[in-house]
Amino acid sequence: MPDSDGEEPDAAELAQWRTRYSQYQPGADRQAVWPAPTLDTAAQAGFRDLGLLPAVPFPADNPYSAAKVALGDKLFRDPRLSRNNRIACISCHAPEHGWSDPRSVSQGHIGQLGGRNAMTLLNTAYVGALFWDGRAASLEEQAKGPVANPLEMHQPLGQAVAKIAAAPEYASLFTAAYGDSRVDLDRMAKAIATFERTLISQDSAFDRFLKGERAALNDQALWGLHLFRTKARCINCHNSPLLSDNQFHNTGLNYIGRDKEDLGRGGVTGLRADLGKFRTPSLRDLLYTGDYMHTGDMPLDEDGAGVIEFYNNGGNLVEAVGVEKYTLPKPSLLLKPLGLSAAEKQALHAFLQALSGPPRLQPASEAELFRR
Questions:
Q1: Tens digits of per-residue pLDDT, 258-298?
Q2: Same domain for 172 and 283
Q3: Which residue in 22, 83, 101, 352 could disulfide with 155, CB within 3.0 to 4.6 Å?
Q4: Where do the annotations place heme c 1 binding (predicted)?
Q5: Annotated catalytic residue within 8, 13, 96, 152
């Protein structure tokens, strides 16, 4: 069978997969007609299969309005949020790069370098805890962090508010969004968060396939879909319509006790069990958001190296040094050598490419947000 020996599936097997995978049940956590996914016990709880993104959720205390989106869009692009008036949110979250940064790490105040790759803002409306380490519980909270961060915009929050309040062009925008022209931090954060929630993926080939366009995935990408959910084991972490379980995992790339050490989630919770864990990123629109991992220095698949080969090898453990190598948490048990053949890796790559739609360069319309 192709799942075990790496041989390409024959026409009959591909036809069977196409028939079964075409019978998508919108909104179902489990797709009963699809071939069963290969899931470890640790991934079973709360598992949701792949699917179409639902309508964008907006919190009750920060509902959608087009006026708030317009205000948030302007604030997002305004370098006056930074101390030296040179860095805006868009400086590290560029639309043409999937609202992320193509550099491994971003440059902040006076050229200082951040410690992690800037995550994409695409589809963050569906994310629970924000940032690689989950330190922000909401987009409203996340919007405040970079302004005050000394490595990023390095500006006291009160000073940022005062600069925006003093800019005459904002009075009409705040009035349209909130009913009066008062400028405060919460209003600014809510507007930026509302704007960010409109940054959703456009339909990819995979989305079109789920909507009934049976030819949207070619045979190679269809094989890649099947591998993604079975032999390649990607589904254990990259599941749900977001293609992320919204959980934190230790892939061994924490460099504990070495250069580039990063405590990950453990630096937020203080729990030893969380050391070296990072949030599972979504795979939607990944063609625009590389390079990958929290270090931002790993290509997807390049000359036998990159993310696909990393996981094919079961991860590449960067051992800690000293006594800590005996006491620190080990990489997730979900990581296992896969034994993918060259043809299987190519098929998986083809499916991953099918997860990117046309680039989202402007906020989604109200119809796009709520009529999924």
A1: 788 899 999 999 999 999 999 999 999 999 999 999 999 99
A2: no
A3: 83
A4: 89, 92-93, 109
A5: 152
